[in-house]
Design a protein that fits this description.
The structure holds two protein chains of two kinds. Chain A is an alpha+beta fold. Chain A has two domains: 222 residues, Rossmann fold (3-Layer(aba) Sandwich); 113 residues, Beta Barrel (OB fold (Dihydrolipoamide Acetyltransferase, E2P)), CATH 2.40.50. Chain A is 23% helix and 34% strand. Chain A has a six-stranded mixed β-sheet, with helices on both faces. In chain A, strands 16-20-17-18-19 form a five-stranded antiparallel β-sheet, with no helix packed on it. By secondary structure, chain B is mainly alpha-helical. Chain B folds into two domains: 57 residues, no CATH class; 200 residues, MetI-like (MetI-like fold, Orthogonal Bundle), CATH 1.10.3720.10. Helix content of chain B is 70%, strand content 4%. Chain B has 13 helices and four strands. The two termini of chain B are 26 Å apart. Classes of the chains: A alpha+beta, B mainly alpha. Chains A and B meet through strand 6, helix 2 and helix 4 of A and helix 8 and helix 9 of B.
Chain lengths: 364, 285
């Protein structure tokens, strides 16, 4: 039985529909990262689950129980708000303890639980402070502690690392997965940072255009994105998108890229004559000094060394600019000037240029 | 601000002194008058030097006003007590009714909500005389003339809109997420209202309560028309000092000092609640 289940949930405001028939199920102990642009309805989704907003249609189930019409205090979820939403007139201790006092726990149990979660989040020394005396990082941890302390079945985290500085965000990104796993809760983690989604999510749910365009494991989101927009949201540098028109030739299907004719792997025969978009990740493009049968001539326009890789901006014969990356910083740095680019046809992604959906190869 | 020259500091000191004198001199003069006899007050030219007397205060407290034409009974202490009772009870009723109403107007959008809130505010626009005549007739019919209940009810015209509109603004300034966070943590709506919304709007509630108290205290015309001597507050009671044998300036001054004292004490006490910025650091700014 799923810990959390959304069944065709819709919500509209005066400005229009924000969520349209959204469905999702979370298993026990699973972390699902909800990824989307700001304004895509990620926060609204959490608020619907917490009971702070009411859906127009659809049902929300927690642990198999329909809670769609229940008040927030009866749902037993833990939630960390993006703006922390600490109670300014209470100490950090009372803030964290607020989730336990509601359940009428005895005082010493409350103290023990608060101190345990505070130690875990390294805020034990500031429990006596008022929220205004805490640094942003401590506020964020206090808000997180408040969500965690009652060991809820469902944990809703609304972009908890958004308002903290880069160093702390990096640290927390490393610590959070084990912390969340240890809690045993099913976690819905909202973020606008694709790296955070990839690092934290067992699965990623991509929210765009009022619905989940894809819900899959991080590797699948990256390797088999459902649409052009998902492909371009994940990956740094952004995936190269090149319009192509596959041509049928005896026994195979070919596409023309930068003046070279490349054979597609089997299964794409039906695409002949259709207009498509070719998605090519930068790391799948190899740049060489010498020509080979399937390479095409390019001009290296810019070279950007980033410690672990080097980014190359290439201009193809037909004037298109594409990005390639090479692992490591080669000892002899690549010079500007003519070179040859090549890619393995098995790594290409093809999208329907009308619908934007990825076209999977047909089984032979 | 630390780099001010001596000249600047002197100029600032002089200017502040001027403002203070302008506003406080009348109060100081009344305070001095309250220790003088009528003759000393009325001498020309006036002088700040006199032999202090407590006769004015003792006359007020004993309730025996001695004039050239004999001794008059005045009910000043009773009036003072009426003022305290009427103002306190009116503000208490207005807080009990107004604070939850202000919360409703701040948090919930409902049909005619804005219209109701504006209608309540409009009580402050209308001159009291406009409503007094019909009110007197109704009160006579209902048997509410010359009762504390009737006066406290009428005083809601003064106190309720004030509290409603000031406190509403404070509730609106509280991030709804803070309240939602408390509810998601498992607390009922009512507990959230009592434990989160009220404490956070505390300075606003204190300010509104204080203002409402002062306005009620200073009201004159409602009590003049709707109450008899036994139920009248000090503002109306002060009329008794205009006697057939002349105006008792010394007693009036003493009465003013005594009637200003409670509001002044209350204002000084409430001051620290007014300046306390509780909301600081609540949410990421």
């Amino acid at each position: 039985m799923s810990k959390l289940e959304l069944q065709a949930v819709s919500k509209a405001f005066k400005a229009g529909k924000v969520l349209d028939r959204i469905s999702l199920a979370l298993e026990e102990g699973e972390i699902v990262a909800v990824f989307g642009h700001s304004g895509s309805g990620k926060t609204l989704l959490l608020r619907l689950i917490a009971g702070v907003e009411q859906p127009d249609e659809g049902r929300i189930l927690l642990g198999g129980r329909d809670v769609t019409d229940d008040a927030p205090e009866t749902r037993g979820v833990g939630m960390a708000f993006q703006n922390f939403a600490l109670f300014p007139h209470m100490s950090a201790f009372d803030n964290v303890a607020s989730a336990l006092t509601a359940r009428n726990a005895p005082g010493d149990v409350i103290r023990a639980k608060v101190e345990k979660v505070a130690a875990l989040l390294k805020i034990g020394h500031v429990l006596g402070h008022a929220p205004r005396e805490l640094s942003n990082g401590q506020k964020q941890r206090t808000a997180l502690a408040r969500a965690l302390v009652a060991e809820p079945q469902i944990l809703l985290l609304d972009d908890p690392l958004r308002n903290v500085d880069a160093k702390l965000r990096y640290e927390m990104r490393l610590e959070l997965p084990s912390l969340l796993k240890a809690s045993g809760s099913a976690v819905l983690y909202v973020t606008q940072d694709y790296k955070e989604a990839m690092a934290l999510g067992d699965r990623i749910a991509v929210l765009s255009d009022r619905e989940f365009t894809q819900i899959a494991k991080p590797a699948e989101i990256y390797g088999k994105p459902a649409t052009i927009s998902v492909a371009s949201l994940f990956g740094d540098p952004t995936i190269n998108l090149i319009p192509v028109a596959p041509l049928a030739s005896p026994g195979e299907t070919k596409i023309g890229v930068g003046g070279a004719s490349v054979s597609l792997p089997p299964g794409f025969a039906r695409l002949a004559g259709k207009s498509c978009v070719l998605g090519l990740r930068a790391e799948h493009i190899a740049v060489e000094d010498k020509a080979s049968p399937d390479s095409f001539p390019v001009e290296v326009v810019a070279v950007t060394p980033l410690n672990e890789k080097t980014l190359l901006l290439l201009r193809t014969g037909d004037g298109r600019e594409i990005l390639a990356s090479e692992a490591g910083t080669s000892e002899a740095p690549r010079r500007h000037g003519p070179a040859f680019a090549r890619f393995d046809p098995r790594t290409v992604l093809l999208f329907d240029s009308d619908s934007g959906r990825r076209i999977a190869p047909q089984a032979a | 601000m630390e780099h001010t020259s001596v000249a600047e500091r002197i100029v600032r000191g002089v200017l502040i002194a001027l403002v203070v004198i302008f506003f406080l001199f009348p109060i100081l003069w009344i305070f001095l008058m309250s220790f003088q006899t009528n003759e000393e007050i009325l001498r020309i030219p006036p002088s700040p030097f006199f032999t202090p007397t407590l006769a004015n205060y003792s006359a007020l407290i004993t309730g025996k006003l001695t004039t050239v034409s004999g001794t008059l009974d005045i009910a000043f202490m009773r009036n003072l007590w009426n003022s305290v009772l009427l103002s306190t009870a009116s503000v208490a009723v207005a807080l009990i009714l107004g604070v939850p109403a202000a919360y409703a107007f701040a948090r919930y959008k409902f049909r005619l909500g804005e219209d109701i809130a504006f209608t309540l505010l409009s009580f402050r626009f209308a001159p009291p005389l406009l409503v007094l005549l019909p009110l007197t007739l109704y009160f006579q019919r209902l048997g509410l003339t010359d009762t504390y209940v009737g006066l406290i009810w009428v005083y809601q015209l003064i106190a309720l809109p004030l509290i409603l509109w000031i406190v509403r603004g404070y509730f609106e300034d509280i991030s709804p997420d803070i309240e939602y966070a408390y509810r998601v943590a498992g607390h009922s709506w009512w507990r959230t209202f009592i434990r989160i919304a009220i404490p956070l709007a505390g300075p606003g509630i204190a300010a509104a309560g204080l203002l409402a108290f002062i306005f009620c205290w200073n009201n004159f015309v409602f009590a003049l028309i709707l109450a008899s001597a036994a139920k009248q507050p000090v503002t109306v009671g002060a009329l008794a000092f205009v006697t057939a044998s002349g105006i008792q300036y010394g007693q009036i001054a003493a009465a003013i000092v005594l009637s200003v004292a409670p509001t002044l004490a209350l204002a000084l006490y409430a001051q620290r609640y007014l300046v306390e910025g509780l909301s600081l650091g609540a949410v990421k700014g």
